[in-house]
Amino acid sequence: MAVVAYGAALAVGLLVALSALVYQRLRGYLRKWVMMKPIQAVGPTYPLLGNALDLKTDAVEFFQQILGYTNEFRQAPLIKMWLGTVPFVILFHAETVEPIVSNPAHMDKSSVYSFLHPWLGTGLLTSTGAKWRERRKMLTPTFHFSILQDFLEVMNEQAQVLVDKLSSRVGAGPFDCFNDVTLCALDIICETAMGRKVHAQSNSESEYVRSIYKMSDIISRRQRAPWFWPNLTYKYFGEANVHDSTLKTLHSFTMEVIRERAQSLKTSDGTGVEDRKRRAFLDMLLQTKDQDGNAMSHGDIQEEVDTFMFEGHDTTAASMNWALHLLGSHSDVHRKVQRELQEVFGESERVASMEDLRRLKYLECVIKEALRLFPSVPFFGRSIRQDTIINGFKVPAGTNAVVLPFALHRDPRYFPEPEEFRPERFLPENCLDRPPYAYIPFSAGLRNCIGQRFAMMEEKVVLSSILRKFQVTATQSRAELLPTAGLILRPENGIWIRLEKCP
Question: Which helix (H) or strand (E) holds 137?
Answer without folding.
Answer: helix 129-139
